[in-house]
Amino acid sequence: MTMLREVAAELIGMFVTERRLTISVLAIVAMVASLVHVIGVAPLFGGAVLLLGSLILLVESVLRGARPAG
Amino acid sequence: MAWFTALPAVSAAFLASLVEVVEAFTIVLAVATLRGWRPAAIGTIVGLTALAGVVLLLGPLLARVPITSLQLTIGVLLLLFGVGWLRKASLRAAGVIPLHDEEAIFAAETAELGAQQPRVHRSLQWVAAITALKAVLLEGLEVVFIVIAVGAGRGLLLPASLGALAACALVLAAGAVIHRPLSRVPENTLKFGVGVMLSAFGVFWTGEGLGIPWPGQDLALLLFAGLFLAAGLLGSSLARKLSLEFA
Fold first, then answer.
1. Nearest-CA distance from B234 to chain A in Å?
2. Which of helix, strand or coil describes residue B100?
């Protein structure tokens, strides 16, 4: 059971390195899906939002990691 | 199959596997040094068999999933995985978090195994085999995910698997020659590179899954990789300055 728990923790840890980054990336994907399929914006605009959003989230997350906690 | 599609997939699988296999090798070597090659080999073989089982189970299942759903799911997972690795590698490159130290891990693992004093010799062998099994299984899970993720969306499962196997062979050959932890592998640079490639694949396939026609099709991957590399380097450089300010 301990090993199964460790495998499960490893699997979750693979995609949730930092909770805020994970939630933000998922939010960007959901936003792009809504923009393209619900609002009907040009798909390429949605693609640009996805790409630039991911890049900005990455830099922001690295900078947040460099600040002292608290 | 275009080389600029296959090459990033095979390279990502090879480099990611190199990082993970080096980490697993350190622990297996600690087991072998302290308790002999038998428990280390048994643990490794059982771990590799379990991983092969995961691939054999997931392979046919993935073939039944519609391609757009598969690309979207794998794309999002790759993006999460890739930016996670890139974030960690950027922070390590900036000196904010310590680099992965194979010598220190080897020493810690050897000390931990050495501290165990069960009543019978057989228990010692059992604990050692489980330690090797866990190392192979936990590190191997990431390799399996990367191989499936970069390979499944474009029918590149075989080349990606060969890339991963080549990394295993390289680490085992190097390990057999030097009999020490492979501490001189530039692990963070490799992690940085893999993070860049996986993030690029992640954005590309998430977009394809959402019906976004990327200009230049597969060539867009190169642009995405360049942008993630620039973002990672920028983040790392700014993080270094920020950590010095707070020091």
1. 7
2. coil
Q: Per-residue pLDDT tens for B85-98? A: 899 999 999 988 87
ipTM above 0.90, yes or no: yes
Torsion, Cα of A21, A25, A30, A32 (10° steps): 140
Please provide the size of chain A in residues. 70
pTM of the entire predicted model: 0.81
Q: Are B171 and B28 in contact (CB under 8 A)?
A: no
Name the residue of chain B whose CA is nearest to A28's CA: B76
- Residues in CB range of B109: below 8 A, 6 or more apart: B26, B27, B30, B31, B131
Residue bearing the bigger pLDDT, B7 or A34: A34
Name which of A51, A52, A56, A61 to mutate to probe chain B: the one with the most chain B Cβ atoms within 10 A of its Cβ: A51
Q: Which of A11, A58, A67 to mutate to test the interface with B (most CBs of B within 10 A)?
A: A58
- DSSP state letters, B103-119: HHHHHHHHHHHHH---S
Residue spans of beta strands (DSSP E) within A6-61: none
Chain B hits for A50, Cβ within 8 Å: 203, 206-207, 210, 212
* Cβ-Cβ contacts under 8 Å, A14 against chain B: 81, 84, 141-142, 145
Mean pLDDT over all residues of chain B? 83
> Which residue type, as a one-letter code, is found at position B176?
A
Region class of B203: left (phi > 0), else alpha (psi between -120 and 50), else beta: alpha
Structure tokens at B203: 């954005």
The answer to whether the CB atoms of B87 and A17 lie below 8 A apart is: yes
Domains of chain A: which residue ranges? 17-66
The CA-CA-CA angle for residues B137, B171, B159, to 5°, reads: 75
Size of chain B, expressed as the number of residues it contains: 247
Q: How many CB atoms lie within 10 A of CB A4?
A: 8
